[in-house]
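Q: Predict the bound structure with guanosine-5'-diphosphate.
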Amino acid sequence: MANNRGRIALIGRIGSGKTTLVQCLSDEYQKYKKTQQVTYTPLFLDTPGEFVELPCFRPQAINVTCDAGLIILVNSSTDCQNSVPPNFIRTYTRPVIGVITKIDDKQCNLKRSYRYLQYAGIRENEIVPVSAFSGVGIDDLKILIESVGLK
Ligand SMILES: Nc1nc2c(ncn2[C@@H]2O[C@H](COP(=O)(O)OP(=O)(O)O)[C@@H](O)[C@H]2O)c(=O)[nH]1
Ligand SMILES: [Mg+2]
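A: Predicted complex:
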């Protein structure tokens, strides 16, 4: 079984921007591809949105990501639905940070995203709003990732 200590795992609803964020952080070409399975790269562990959206898959989500060095819970600022239960991140013994995506979008609602991520148990100062399209916030995210470190 692969050891994920050196990887950053991304979880979040379908379409929240996890794969695009991985590509952006990896400076890869942004090309849309639905994640049907858990995808491993040397630094990232990208998961399908079904993992947090469907309660029956949630144990799977925790299983494959619990030994990651860092977990990023992704929330789209355009998403008016939440499927992450209260204090979900308390299940993890590793650091978890929150990322709010798509802040370039007209439908962006930052306040709602902060509320959802804080409801999941993430502290306000461990949440970064970003746009993978414009690049806004990506440097702040890199700084937060480095300050938290891969534990
Ligand atoms: N406006 C905007 N759209 C984004 C951004 N990041 C991702 N998207 C779009 O959101 C959709 C879902 O992105 P994807 O990365 O596949 O989400 P995933 O299901 O969480 O992996 C795609 O159409 C992306 O182009 C962003 O920063 N801004
Ligand atoms: Mg994906």
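A: The chain has five helices and six strands.
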